[in-house]
Amino acid sequence: MQVVVLMKQTFDTEEKIELVGGAVSEHSVKYIINPYDEYALEEALRLRETHGGSVTVVSCGPERTVEALRTGLAMGADEAVHVSDEGLQGNDRAIAAALAAVVKSLQPDLLLAGLFAVDRGAGSIALQAAELLGVPHASAALKIEVRDGGGGLTAVVERDTEWGLETVEIPLPALITAQQGLNEPRYPSLPGIMKAKRKPLRQVTAAELGLTADDLAPRTERVALLAPPVRAAGRKLAGTPGEQATALADLLQREAKLF
To answer: Rounded distance, CA 66 to CA 72, Å?
Structure first.
């Protein structure tokens, strides 16, 4: 099997985050592989161990994204592709088109990605790439089994939904996004880190991918990025239970404007 994993380098949401000029300060954060993409990569490595083949990690981002790709190679991926995001920053549609162009050239049997990115809480880019590639997708996978029924490869996916677990079967090639609980990602070993330095890592620009003006046209625009408002101190209501209830109702109506 040829498996491609879409990966994003995100800032660690467990660290302190500072906003400067309406953007996250890059000097105050630690950058890591998006945790949900780690589940996708681990699943790709397990599928390769079972079915053979190769695993390629692909990411679009600034030059520092190479660090995340090298970590993916150290975990066990065979090769990596870095797409420069110069001129694409903040343009999800263009990033999806760039990733789709790379994936199309690789012609994988399976495309994996994380359910969403923890830095923005969004999970649309992988799905947009699947639409551009014209392949089916299944989201929030908790279990993946690849089968060969004679008529081609299919994937049986147990997925997490709002109404409980759902099992679907989709033909490959397809996109599957990984939910927390799919597996337990491995840590890069020392030999893996050393081998990663010798594994192929190809870098391409958006211009080299032949994207059209329609591909590059933004569909959304971020108008502001603000820190949450400072929470006011709590207030203790005095009096009898009845007096407290009356005071609480008055505060909810007059100050909180709830009714």
So the answer is: 10
